[in-house]
Amino acid sequence: MRFLLAFAQGGVISPLLPLLRETFQVSPGELGLLTAMPGLSAVVMDISATYLLSRRPLLSLLLQGIGLTGIALLCSMLAPGFYWLIATQMLLGFGVSLTRVASLMVVVAATPRTEQGRANNLLEFSAVAGITLSPTISGLTAAFLHWRVAFGVASLFIVGALLWVLYARRTLSTALTTPSSTPSPSSAPPTPAPAAPVSAHRGTIGIAYITTFVQSFVWSAFLSTALPLFAGEVVGASTSTLGLVFTAGLFADLLLLLPMGWLADRLDVRLVLTPALLLMAGALAWLPWATSVEGLFLVSIGLHTSFAAWGMPSAALALCTPRERLTRTMGIYRLIVDGAVVIAPWLIGTMIGWYGYGLPAWGAAGLVVLLAVLVGFGLRTARP
């Protein structure tokens, strides 16, 4: 389901921007408003979703979110004007946010504690796989048919996600109502482990939230904004070359997501997350010196590889949060992710305009190193 949703949500509109500008005769600033609208509305829905998930059935909200996303894509296909299209993208942000929070809650609530790392990284694997394919299909559809047809094709994937959830609804309901950590009747009852101090759990949750913000910020600020600008302005790379640079990084991310989730379950979340953060810091520090295409490939692969630990903060939150508070915790988690996406491009673009690429990249690398130290010594999850 997450793959189908990510395919329809992730990169449908990016290849269509030149065609939309030509069709509606709008400025780059208006196109920026169009691309920013889903993120802004997603932040609003993240706040509301925390309230809704605590009072409405989880699967019901998941189906409603998928339906809202499908309606938004169909309205985008039929948009008579540019600002109508902006309104449909705002509606899309509401649906995307609700489905992301609900699907995350389904995975966390239905997964045993010993498999949280794998489950959270598998969810991210599905999303990245969809995002990897989405721009290519959208661009080809628009090139050979029409940009409106690209939105229509995306809505078909939403229909597929809806049908899949309806098909698996009974299994999901059983998984969500049965405690995932319930021992089998034939097994001896486990010896209860001493409870960790509440302050220790709060400290772990706080570190996980900070890590979540940094991961989302670096993705939006550097992978989505600074790296493409640097490639064009400094390296002089073509758009086709830049596409290959990102594709290589995304494939590295896909290859490592599941093994890193398995390692986190076998070892510990911080033993996987700390090296990933150090790798992220190294790639950020190297960015200003990556003045060749080969250097861009190394930076892209380094950053994407570090994001193979994306699911580790949410896994840590699932391990350290009591079940009755899980909805609120995961709602805040999604709010932090989407909030960083809104803040990062503007902030990093302003800093690049003032100071160039060196200071923002090296400053971010230093902060990530400090975070790696904090994670290494402070992220102590409660093990089963």
| Estimated radius of gyration | 21 Å
Largest sheet: none
Report the total helices. 15
* CATH superfamily caption of the largest domain: MFS general substrate transporter like domains
Report strand %.
under 5%
Q: What is the number of independent domains?
A: 2
**Structural class of the secondary elements?**
mainly alpha
Taken from the alpha-carbon principal axes, the silhouette is: globular
Describe the oligomeric state of these chains in a short phrase: single chain
Within the CATH hierarchy, at the fold level, what is the topology of the largest domain? Growth Hormone, Chain: A
- The CATH class of the largest domain is Mainly Alpha
SS elements, strand count: 0
Mean pLDDT: 82
Percent in helix? over 70%
- Low-pLDDT segments: 180-199
Report, as a whole number of angstroms, the end-to-end distance: 29 Å
CATH level-two architecture of the largest domain: Up-down Bundle
Order of helices and strands: HHHHHHHHHHHHHHH
Quick summary:
The protein is mostly helical and 384 residues long.
What would you note in describing this structure?
- With 384 residues, the chain is an all-alpha fold.
- It has two domains: 2-177, Growth Hormone, Chain: A; 198-378, MFS general substrate transporter like domains (Growth Hormone, Chain: A).
- Helix content is 80%, strand content 0%.
- It is built from 15 helices and no strands.
- The protein has helices at residues 2-9, 17-24, 28-53, 58-77, 82-110, 116-144, 147-167, 169-177, 198-235, 239-266, 269-286, 293-306, 312-320, 326-355, 358-378.
- The two termini are 29 Å apart.
- Residues 180-199 have low confidence and may be disordered.
